[in-house]
Amino acid sequence: MAVLTQKKPTTLVEKFNDQTWRRKFVNNVLIPWIFIAPLLIIHLYVVAIPAVQGIYMSLTDWKGVGMNVNFVGLENYRELFFEDETFGKALSNNILWMAFFLTVPFILALFCATMLSQVRRGGMLYRSILFIPYVLASVVTATIWKNLLNPQRGIGAAVDNILGLEGVFGVAYLGRTDSALMSIAFIDNWQFWGFLMILFLAAMQSIPPVLYDAAKIDGANRWQEFRHVTLPGIRPILVFMFMMVAIFSFLAFDYIFLLTQGGPGGASEVIATQLYKNAFFRFQAGYGAAQGVVISIFAGFIILIFVTVKRRGWDI
After folding, report:
1. Rounded-to-10 torsion of CA 7, 9, 11, 17
2. What angle do CA 175, 267, 166 make, to 5 degrees?
3. Quick one: DSSP state of residue 313?
4. Which residues, given as ranges, of the chain have pLDDT below 70?
């Protein structure tokens, strides 16, 4: 007995005339695109178009005001990498900032998260206390610490008065070229590390307890449990935050600008503060746009490293 089979539509006209294909097209293609279209439009106007405009402006000699835009090609980049000595100093400060934030806050967060994961009573109170600095606005935190580090009336001055000393602890840490950048990094870290701790603690609590029980049966001590159970269990969030902090290190701006504005003598200058000054104070918007593109390139390079490592089979 011959079995009748329906011929599948091949041409575009046949597909639209076929009710089954039309229904699948509406459900699987048209409706999803309708829902995602508003987000794509917003992304286009807020991210894509400004990004393209920024790249174009980096190739011009624009003052930031008016319509007098002179196309200069790669001249801004040539000056940036081969003539501007202050850019090299700012870049080295960004790298030093990144080295600090890829070590100190991670060590603090991992240590405290490990300790808090073993607390059974009052754990929520301790977490809230350590997390409170993160919810403070950066301008508030900067003002608090600017007063605390004041050499005349801050913590150091109070310690000198108690010990009967003069100028030993009451030092203008934000006013010295050898301590300004790391002092700002300390203040930023005071606010930031609690956020990392909460993330790591949440990841630790998702590790099955049976893994720790198995490690104890095998005779593992606390360090071995942390190394072979805790770290592998939180590796995804650890690596992700490692990548994000590395990217954020090239975007550092608020605390530096609020506390020293890149001073003294450019000791705490980073690319973002230099970009702001060039674009809005020195009326070199085209040159500032070039610096912004360079920041994006560095961020993209960091992402590329992690993507390459993951594709090569590293368990991250």
Report:
1. 120
2. 25
3. T
4. 1-18, 314-316
Q: Give 199: exposed, middle or buried? Use CB within 10 Å, 0-12, 13-18, 19+.
A: middle
C-alpha 197/C-alpha 203 separation (Å) is 10
| Nearest partner of 201 among 291, 109, 277, judged by Cα | 109
Whether the Cβ atoms of residue 256 and residue 79 lie closer than 8 Å to each other: no
Decide: residue 183, CB within 10 A, 0-12 exposed, 13-18 middle, 19+ buried: buried
In whole angstroms, how far apart are CA 147 and each of 172, 187, 266? 11, 12, 22
The CA-based dihedral angle spanning residues 72, 271, 86, 290, taken in that order and rounded to the nearest 10 degrees:
0
Q: What is the pLDDT of residue 25?
A: 78
User: What DSSP letter does each residue of 259-302 carry, written as one string?
Assistant: HTTT-STTTT--HHHHHHIIIIIS--HHHHHHHHHHHHHHHHHH
Predicted confidence at residue 53, as pLDDT, reads: 92
Q: What tokens does 278 get?
A: 């060039």
Tokens, residue 280: 């809005």
- The structure tokens listed for 125 are 């109170």
Asked if residue 204 lies in contact with residue 230, where contact means CB atoms within 8 angstroms, the answer is yes
Q: Write down the pLDDT at residue 11.
A: 64
Q: How far is CA 91 from the centre of its chain?
A: 16
In this prediction, residue 108 carries a pLDDT of: 95
φ, ψ of residue 70 in degrees (nearest 5): -105, 120
Q: Token pair 């090239």 is at which residue?
A: 250
**pTM of the prediction?**
0.86
